Every structure is written in structure tokens, then in C-alpha cells.
Batch of 2 targets.
Target 1
Amino acid sequence: MSKLLNTSSLSRYDHQIISQWVEPGSRVIDLGCGDGSLLKHLQTSKNVSGYGVELNPAMMDKCIDNDVNVIQFNLDQGLGHFDSDSFDTVILSLTLQSMRKPRILLEEMMRVGRQGIVTFPNFAHWRNRWQIAFGGRMPVSDELPYKWYNTPNIHLCTLNDFHTLCDQLGFQIESSIAVRADGKQTIGLKTMPNLFGEIALCRFIKR
Amino acid sequence: MTNTDQELNELVEPKSVRFDEVLELESSGRLDGYTLVYETYGTLNHDRSNALLVCHALSGDHHVAGRYDNSGKTNGWWHHLIGPGKPIDTNQFFIVCSNNIGGCSGSTGPSSVNPATGEPYGTEFPIVTVKDWVYTQTKLSDYLGIAQWAAVIGGSLGGMQAMQWSISYPDRLRHCLLIACAPKLNAQNIGFNDVARQAIRTDPDFHDGNYYQHQSAPARGMRVARMIGHITYLSEDMMGQKFGRNLRKKAKFDYEFTPEFEVESYLRYQGDAFINKFDANTYLLMTKALDYFDPAADTGDDLVKAFEPMKADFLVVSFSSDWRFTPERSREIVRALQSNKLNVSYAEVTSPQGHDSFLLKIDDYTRVIRSYLNRIAREPRPCSDLLDKGEQNV
């Protein structure tokens, strides 16, 4: 799941923001944890404990090398593996867009945890709009490098779409930030995040 | 992954230790004393913190690594996993593997001579359980001066034994590796075991288990038992790939009852090879130990509760094509460990080789084992008060 997006420059920045949203010493689960670097960061900087979930066999030993507990299974099968209310924070980082049933997964996240953190590529970014509006083609970008026929990203959404779904599910958005992949802050990003944000980061709880 | 794998330079030799004490067994049976035969590889470090205990499976023994001679035919059963630079690295760890009591490879078992009678125990040998094995291994640990194992590792029945260690003696191990394992047998598993037992016990050469006195062995029964066991260790796909419907050295059927298909002659060969190296009474005992294993039986069928005493960190590994102990059985274990908020990593390795995968060299599997063992080796060593505590536990 780590290679769904091109995240080389982004991931560190992404981790910094997520880290601010996680309580020290809390229980965390990272869904689609890749090589476990986010959890490792949280374990070292915030003394959290918990598990990473990852499907890719090439990532198992990397997580273990990172001293991260990793559980290998497919998130499309739900979170039946985990007890209700067993985590303080459930993280789904850059993975939502590849899930078969994102809505059910979000509900499951709020079953097993108190607070959810979801990050995803914002499909309403102006460059994507431009490619569709004027090029007449499905967008291909640094963040979404695939063609329409081979992309694992089957459920793309915009920041506004995500807010609407959270509302329908009875989730209260606690924080919502849009960022550029390079981490630069601009005025446009602050005033029109759905237009200028490449990656969206949302933190929510049960209402 | 790495090209650093080497072989142990020296040939290995089994050692043995005798415990002259009455052993009260879970089955209410007793032994007036017992011998454990074991092997070790690598060197125990100064603070005795680098010891690993490997538990063998149904038909395994204490010869897990190294070799007895240079013939190339005496490699240990986890030869590719254990050695200098191998995933379980003898340069870093001191590795111990013992033959379980009831076995037939040197530890006291049904084919051993009963000192009270001067005859082999035969059916006089009491039923032994996984708990009994773990208890006798604590005696071996004390004898070797190991208060706490860095890890207890096992596959299949050996995994159940490792699990029992972490329940019964949580202070005596820091890590536990459960490979191709299950929290208990299901009805299908027990059914297969009983077919094997019936094959042996109904063989006219069984003589109610006292075949030693008749200079015979229930060879036909053992062969059938091993054949059915072997089928359950492989996967349908693997058997299809390996044998298909191929005929043996001919193009057409003979319409006879001699072995005609490749798969028939392969299974018969496996069965025959087993007769000469394994004792039928031991096979009966081992399958019973498997059937009885059920840690949740003491906690109202609640595995989460059964795991409450555990303190170790866990690595659980299952194999996609294992239908004897399916990945779902390992997930049961993982879920119960998670519910106890224990540290656990779980790898579900894709492999076509069925239950036997745990004995084989499969890249995704050995990489995980190597990483996990490196993690153990990296850890700070336990403080000495913990070591003292371990000794008091005895």
C-alpha cells in the first residue's frame, strides 16, 4: 500500500502534522503502514504503542526492522481483527483512495478508535481540474502517477467530498488541513484549500 | 536475501541429561525419572541472555541444525534457518533443541527401557501433554543455567509448545515465535489424527503396543498413518503440480492394484521411510498431545483470558496454502494477543507448499524471521534482578 502514491518528499511533512495530532503515550493503529516509518516516528517522538497494518509482504521485515508491530492483512476485509474502542487514534494515511469500501472502513475506524486521522490526495486540486477541463483527460500527476486503467486509486475524492461524508457518518471534523506536496505554505492554500491543496489531512471524532 | 549463510564448522553431537525425580504428569500418570536428549549450537554469552529454545513438531526431534557427519544426509530439520549468518544466527544466539519425553530419539519414551521392569515401557508409558513437555524443558533450562530464554520458537506442534511456555512461565521468555500453529485442534484435525492412530492400533503387528517384545513393528499401520499425515501437510495445488495424474514409468493403465500413479508411489515411499526412523507408540502419544492441547479449556473457552498471563513479545507466521492449520487459526491467536495489548507482529506468507511450508526455505518467511531475530539481538539485555526472579520461579 505504500506505493499507491508518489510520496517521497511528502511523507516526512505528512508525519509531522499527524504527530501533532497524536497524544503522547496513547494507543495508535496505522492502517496501511508501509514500512512502519510513521509509527516508528510516533513511537520515538510520542512514546505511543500499537500496531501497523500492511498487506505488502515486502514491507513485513521493514516494519520489524523499524521495531514496529505489523499485522499482515487486507483492509478491504474490514477491521474485525481489532476490538471496539481499543485505540486512541486510528490513522489511515494515503490509503483511503485505494479501498474498495471506503465508507465502511471509515465507520470501522470509528468503531475501534476514538479519533481518526485520514490523509488523501485531494482530487479537486487545480492541476487535476485543469487536466480534465482543458485537456479532457483523467489527471496524471506526481502524486497520482497512474493512468485510469492501471491505477490502484479507485475511490478518489475531494476535500469537500470527504467533509460531506464525515457529516453523513456523524463524524465531527476536529482539524482539516490541505498541503502542497513540497510542504510550502501559500495564501491560496489557506483561503482555498480545496483548490490549492494537493494532500488533505483530516482529524475527526464521533459526534 | 543475503549471501552470508554459512554452515556450522564443527559436527554436532547430541547430549543428554537425566533427571532422577518423580514426574507427575497432567494425565495423572507418572515417571520415576526421565532423560532429555538435546543439542546446542552457538555460544551462551556471559549474562546468559542470548539463549533460544526451539521446540520440534510431531515427527521432529532435537537435531534441528548442523550435521552429524559430512555425508550431506544428516542435516538438521531447520538446517537452512539456523547457522552462522543464517536467519537464526548461531554467531548471535545460543540455540537449544530437546527431544520431548514420549519421543523416540533419545529422550525417555515408550521404546526406552523401564528401569523398574528391564523391558521397554510400551503401553506402560503414560500419556504426556504439551504442558508436561514445557515443564520438563524448564528443568533442562535450569540445568543449562538459563533463567530466561531470549525466545522460544516452534512450528506446528512446536508452536503450541512455545505458546504454552508463554502461558505457564511468562517470566522465563522475552519473545515467542509461533509458526504454522493453532490455538487448538479442530474436529477435522482430530479426525485425521484418529485415522492415523487406528491404522497403527489395528495393525496385527501392534501387539497392544508391546511389539518390541515380538521383535516386530506395526509397519503397515505406520505407513498408512504417515501417508495420510503427509497428504495433510501438502496442499492440493502442490500435489497437483508435483504429481498431477502422472503415471509411474508407463503410458497406460495396467488395471491392477499395484501403485500406478506417481502420487501413490511417492506417498508409499514416504510411509516406508518413516517406519524405520519413528516409533509407533511415540506417534500415538504425539498425536494425542496435539488433540489435548487447548489452553482456553481452563478459561471457559476464552482464549483472550487464557493469554492473560503472557508477557512476551510475539511473532506469528502462517502460510496461505496451509489447510491443516489455516491462516485463520493463526489470526485467532493474533487477535487474542492483541486483545491482551501484547506486542505482536503477524505475517501471512503466500506459499503453495501447505503446512510443510514452515520447514522450507521461502524468502518472505525467512526474511521476517531474520528481521525478528535481529530485533531480539538489538534489544538491551535484561537486568539482573529479572534473571534472579526467573531462577526463583523454578
Target 2
Amino acid sequence: MTLDALAPGATAVVTGYAGELPARLLEMGLVPGTSIEVVRLAPLGDPMELKVRGFLLSVRKDEAAHVVVENA
Amino acid sequence: MTETQTRVRTVALAGNPNVGKTTLFNALTGSHQKVANYPGVTVERKSGRLAGVRAGGDGAPSTSAPGVEVVDLPGTYSLAPKSVDERVAFDALVGRIPGEPAPDVVVCVVDATNLERNLYLVTQVLDLGLPTVVALNMTDALDEAGIEIDVAGLAERLGVPVVETAARSGRGIDALREAVLDPPPPAQGVGWELMPAVQAAVAPLAEALGAESDVPPSQLHAEALGALTSDPLLAVWERRAPRFHQDVLDTRAALDARPVMYRMAEMTGRYGWISPVAADVVRQTAAAGQVTVSDKIDAVVTHRVWGPLIFGGVLLVIFQAVFSWAVPAMDAIEWLVGVTGQGMRAVLPDGVFEDVMVEGALTGVGNVLVFLPQILLLFLFLGIMEDTGYMARTAFIMDRAMRKVGLSGGSVVPMLSAYACAIPGIMAARTLADERERIITIMVVPLQGCSARLPVYVLFIAAFIPAGSLFGVIGYQGLAMTSLYVLGTLMAFAAAWVLRKWVFKGTGSSFVMELPPYRMPQPRYLWRRMVDRSKVFVVRAGKIIFGLSIVLWVLASYPKLDPPPALAAQMEAADQAAQDARQSLVDIDLSGRAELEGTERASIESALEAADAESLVAQNEWAGYQVRNSYIGRFGHALEPIMRPLGFDWKISAGIVASFAAREVIVSALATIYSAGADADEESLALRDAIKADTYPDGTKVFTPLVAVSLLVFFVFALQCMSTLAIAKRELNSWFWPAVMWGYMFVLAYGFSFAIYQGGKLLGLG
């Protein structure tokens, strides 16, 4: 499952990447083993607001699609 | 002066965005600051002199630290260059900026409430092997966040001094200053580990780089790893160390073949070190998952329904402020300019110099200054939005919509700023990380209805749009005004879409954005930034307008001509008649004959009035004659054949030429041409009536409502603003895109006006 498929309120753990490596997301801490909470979606359904390592991050769904996650 | 003080010459502040780095910079430097640009890029270089170390409680500086320069590097999450900001920060730290050696000390500013992610950049900085001090900032927010940090433990793990600060209250600033002036030895790096396969590959690369370049040994590993994992960093070496460059390419191919995911090696390696350290030194005192105030605000502000409504409300308040709260201040500035003009007239000797200074220079500069209140207000609101953290939320809310035209949420603010003036809008585009998106934004921002268009809109709407209202609620005039703004904005979106689709292809880079916690803005720094930014506007725009106003005034005033014989005779006759009438009145008074006091006196008085009026008409006509035959008038005549299909006669054409400096100039230019008196403004009835009454030789009206609409639309699209071009040139570092900008906007203006005028005539409207 990829990160963009998660619904608001869901939590998951990063396990790997699909396709292009989202370097910026990795620098922001979304390395394998990191747990993520989807806080909400923007009013138009995209981007998504994530909580990672205690801070909030806005990520577009097409970029979140590069992050492979597993339900925590 | 101690030895260390002479040794430390430059201090660089590095850190993530939103960690209070600039506040800390202000606290360290006090008022000794200057803002410049890094060579060749639009990244601001903020620097200042380290203020003296304060003694005791009296606040007086006891030790001054002369010559210590503090540089506030752009806020970045990483030193691996993906944006211009990151590249500048990295280059500055390794001494690769021309004429700027690497800093003697680095202060790495860290948000204590968000330690884990902040440590990523810290570990990168420590790898550079420079003397480094970590400023653990925002410690005043730790209690509320329910966090405790083992500072000594953190310092031990990082191997560098860690100073607790709270830049807002000034806590820890003295300690930080002392730590900087007595710098630690060069940092050793934290000893994070790359995955073995990559580590094995980097070691020989570092050796190769050392053999081929003058990179200090302590930085070789970092540089080699950077080149291996990042294309921009590798490109640096293509010429400077070609063999190393080739080695890296070979190594990448070998790793790809195995396969080893070397590109993520740095991130996983660093976080592999950071996560356990953070777990050790950070203690969560409040229950995890507790809902903070920030979370509560966010739930409302980014809510599916409330979010957009609140954003709309905020915009409404800003527009309201910019358009109406600014009016008293604008009136005051106009009054001041008027008074200054009178003062100058009284002091300066009559003549050409006086005319140039008052009518040319002062009026021109006044035309710019009058927008200052609006710009100050806009910067104030933008500053509040930025400092509270709301700005990031607007980008979050709007991103999806903006993407439809190839922009991102980050373009919302530049586009909004441009409603006041394109200049702050263009400058606000600096925050965009993606260079292509930045260029697109700059290219379309001048289509937004800026405040300089207002006087033009007001004049022609008041003259040609009826004052009535639709259903008694929506005034036609207001509706017309709104339509012009909507038209400009829609065209800006369309232009962005076209540019993204055909010129700057692709979907744009990533839009990963931190949503910082909400914070109270600090009035002191809001004010300072507002003043700084406005200064830039006044100085840059003012310089251009000052010169151009003088040129335009000369073009509109020369060559000086005598009145043509018929007009001269008319003026003379009127003056003579007035003089005769005055003499007759004097005669009557002297004769003392009471019987003449009645009807005869009344008829002479009315004759005098008529003669005076005729004299004024002749005077104004002479002024009009002068303008018609001035250089600008001749230019207007020459342009008339081109502008005729839009419904514009030579007078409007001349006005458009004159308003190339700034849109609102067309109002005063038309006032001069129509001899309505040079001090007429867009509210002036004389000008409005003269425009409505003007006819061609065949008796048809020059200005029909159709012509007015055509002209209004022309002003919606045309880039009649020297200052915008000048700023765009500065921000884009070339005249190419500003030239394209002017060209495409002219084509839009001409095309739309042409279609409206010709189409309207076909429909029998004009």
C-alpha cells in the first residue's frame, strides 16, 4: 500500500519506496521505519497533512504515492 | 581585545525555516544590519555586526566585538542543493561564494520543540568540520509542548556546545554570543554510519577528490558523498576535478548494478543515528497525542468548509484595508505633495527648472509615494500571515486549485500581493523553490489588477458607466470595477496555464511543505520587515519614476510654441474686452451718477465675466495646442493609425505613451491634453466633462461607452509600468523575460481591445 491511499486518522509505517525516490520527503524524516499519521486532507482532497516525528507536513498525493507503507 | 575576538571574523547562522533563526539574528545583531543579494541569484544576503556582549542587568554593552560579521543564511532543511536557497547555504558554508571565505563559526539554530527533524541539518553541518555551536532555540515553548530535553546529553552526543536560547525573550543570547566569540575546535561529525556498501564506495572517492582538488581533508568525505548522491553537487566537479567526476559516475553505475539504493543512503544513515539519540535526550512529559492549541486552530482553519470561508474572509479584510483604510493616508500624501509643490514654487526662481522640478519630478515621485500606504498595509498583512504560520495553510488549502493552472499553493501569496502592486508580488515569488514556477508566477503576476490601474478605472467608469444598480443592490459601476479585476485574474491563470503547458513543461517539482505551529507575531519584527520591504519599493520604483517623469514632462512640454495667430487674436481680444469692462466699472464708480448704478452696471459686470471666461478658455486651448504639438503629441499622432482600430484617437494614444512610466499617468496626461487644468485628477468633473464632450471634426464623439470599455480592457492587460519591468529584470537576472512579459501583455491588450471595439461596432454599439 502507498501513503496516498491512507484515510485521515490512519497511521502507518514507512517500509520502502515506489518509483522515483522522493528525496525531500526522506530528508524530512520519512525514512523506512518511520511512523506516519494522516491528520487530514486539504479541502479539495489534496494535498494531505501528515504528522511525522512530531511535526506537520503537507504532501501532495502524487508524491505520497512514491512512499510504500504498512499499517501500524 | 582578546585573541579569540580578532580570530572570529564571520559567523554564519544555519537552520531550518520556522525555527526563529531570523529572530535570533536580530537579537544578535541589534540594529546593525544590511540586506544585499548573493551574486547572480535573488537570495537575500542578510548580514549584521555582532552587537556587544551585555553586562549584568543594566543592558549596557561592556565588551564590543568589532568586525564580527553575522550572516543569516537562507533557511533550509538540508544542505543537498535542490533549491536556490539550499545551494546558497551550502556554498556559503564551504566558502564557495565568490569573495566570501567560509565562516569562522557556524551557529546551527534548532527548534527545541521539533528536535528530531532539525538534527538532520545539524549532522550535515557538523560534517563540514567547521567550529560549530548549536543554539537550542524556542526553549520557552518546551513546557507547553510537554517536552524536556537533556541538554548536556545532547551536547555530548553532538560533540559541540549546545546553548539554550529563546530568541523572542532574549534568553540565552549572551551565552550564545560568548560561545561564538570563544569558539570550539572544528566539529568532528557525529559518526553516523552509511550502509556498508555505500561507505565502501565513498572512501576511495574521497581520496580521489583529495588528490585532485584543494578541498580540506575534513570535508572530503562530505563532498564525496554529496557528489555521489546528488546530481547538482556532482556537476560542480565536472570541470574542477574531471577524474573524480568520472570516478563518481563509474561508482554509481556499479552500485546501480548490484543494486544498492545509494541515493537514500545519506537520509537513512543520518536518521539511523538521530532517532535513538532523540529518543534518549527528549522526554515527553505530557501524554503523547495530546491535542495542542495549534491543533485546534488547524482543525478549523484547514477545515473542509470553514477553511476556504476563513481564507475568503481574510482576503476580504485585506482588500478592504488596502482599498479603503489606506485612503486617508493617501489623501494626506497627496496633500503633502501639493503643499511641497507650492513651497518649491515659492522658493525656486520662476522658469524651466522650477517647472521641471515641480510638474515633472515632484508630481512623478508623488505618483509613486501615494501607493505607499497600500503597500505598507499589504506588507503588514502578509507579515502577520507569515509569522503566525497561516501563510503555509493558505498554500495547503489552495494548492489543488492552483495546480490546475500549473502553479502551486506557494503562488497564492505572490498573486494576492499583486492586487496592491505587481512589485511586491514579484518579490514574494522568491519563496518558490521551483525555478520554473517562480518564472511563471513572475510572468503572470502583472496581470492582476494593481492599485495603479484604479485611477484609470475610476475616471472612465465614472464617466461612462451609469450610476444605477442591478435590482437596486449591485451598482453598475461597482460591477464594472469588479469585472475588470476578475478579467485580469482569469487572464493571469490562463497565461500561467499556457506557460506551463507549452513553455515550462512538466508538473513542477515537489511541493513538500512544513505546516509550522501557530505562533503570535512580534510587532517589533513585523514593523521592521514592513519598513525594510517598503524602502526597497520606494527606492527602486522611485528612482525610475523620478527620471522618467522628468523625461515625460519635457516630452509633453516641448517644443515651446507661440499661440497660432487666430488664437493669439482671440486671447488678446478677450483680455482687451475684460480690461475695457473693468475700466467702465471704475468710470461709473468715479462719476457718482446713481442712475447708472442699475441696469447698466449689471450688463457691464456680466460682460466682464464673459470676457474672463473666454480668456480662460483661450488659455487652456493654448495649453492644449502646446501639448498637441509637443513631442508626445506628435508621437500620439504618429501612433493614431495603429491605435485607431481600438477606437483610440491621437489624444488617447499620446496618453498611453505617457502612461508607459506608470498607468495612472494617463489621467494627468489626458487632463493636460484636454486643457482641463494640470491639477485635474480622476475625480475631476472638468476632465470627465471634457472627455465626454470631445468630438472628431465630423461631429462624432471621441469617447463613446464602447471606446471607454475598449480603453479599460486595454489597461487591464497592457504592462504600462516601468517599475514592474525593472523589478522583473532584477529578479530574473535578464531582460529576456521582462521583454516577453511586456510583449505578450501588449498583444493581449491590443487583441482584446481590437475585438471589443470592432465587435461592438458590428453590433451597432458605438
